[in-house]
């Protein structure tokens, strides 16, 4: 593949990841608030910001399932279970990223951007 093709695939996959993260965060927040009969607050866009921030902290080579686990941790565990916006004592996206970092398997991907032959020996 040419470098232009790699660049286009990188850009498209980044777009897919950010859309999936934002939609998942908004959907999780909406679903949780409906299930527990709370006022739905997705119009404040805090879930959008959380999804965006979590996307920015991960590598573009991260699989979508890792992104979705992070969305769940950020929205449900850190944000909603602590009382919602203005009641959480951690930034939800950063808390999810810290948990990924603590677990080596989730914090890093095995996909590499360069080949061994490209490295300087």
Characterization of this structure:
The chain is mainly α. Helices cover 64% and strands 0% of the residues. The protein contains five helices and no strands. The protein has helices at residues 3-35, 46-57, 64-80, 92-102, 104-107. The radius of gyration is 17 Å and the shape is globular. The model is unreliable at 109-119 (pLDDT under 50).
Tell me the series of helices and strands, N- to C-terminal.
HHHHH
Helix vs. strand class: mainly alpha
State the low-pLDDT regions, or none.
Answer: 109-119
Task: Determine the mean pLDDT.
Answer: 81
**Overall 3D form:** globular
Bin the strand percentage: under 5%
Number of helices: 5
Say what oligomer this is. Answer: single chain
Integer-rounded radius of gyration: 17 Å
What's the helical proportion of residues? 55-70%
- Largest pleated sheet: none
Labels describing this entry:
0% strand; mainly alpha; 121 residues; single chain; disordered C terminus; globular
Question: Would you spell out the secondary-structure blueprint of this structure?
Answer:
Blueprint lengths: L2 H33 L10 H12 L6 H17 L11 H11 L1 H4 L14
Helix pairs in contact: 1-2, 1-3, 2-3, 2-4, 3-4
Summarize the structure.
This protein is mainly α. Helix content is 64%, strand content 0%. Mean pLDDT is 81; it is low at 109-119.
């Amino acid at each position: 593949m040419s470098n232009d093709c790699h660049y286009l695939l990188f850009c498209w996959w980044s777009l897919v990841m950010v859309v999936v993260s934002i939609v998942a965060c908004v959907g999780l927040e909406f679903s949780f608030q409906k299930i527990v009969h709370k006022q739905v607050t997705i119009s404040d866009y805090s879930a959008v910001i959380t999804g965006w921030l979590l996307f920015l902290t991960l590598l573009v080579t991260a699989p979508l399932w890792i992104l979705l686990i992070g969305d769940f941790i950020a929205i449900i565990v850190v944000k909603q279970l602590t009382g919602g916006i203005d009641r959480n004592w951690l930034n939800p996206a950063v808390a999810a990223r810290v948990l990924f970092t603590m677990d080596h398997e989730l914090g890093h991907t095995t996909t590499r951007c360069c080949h061994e032959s490209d490295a300087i020996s």
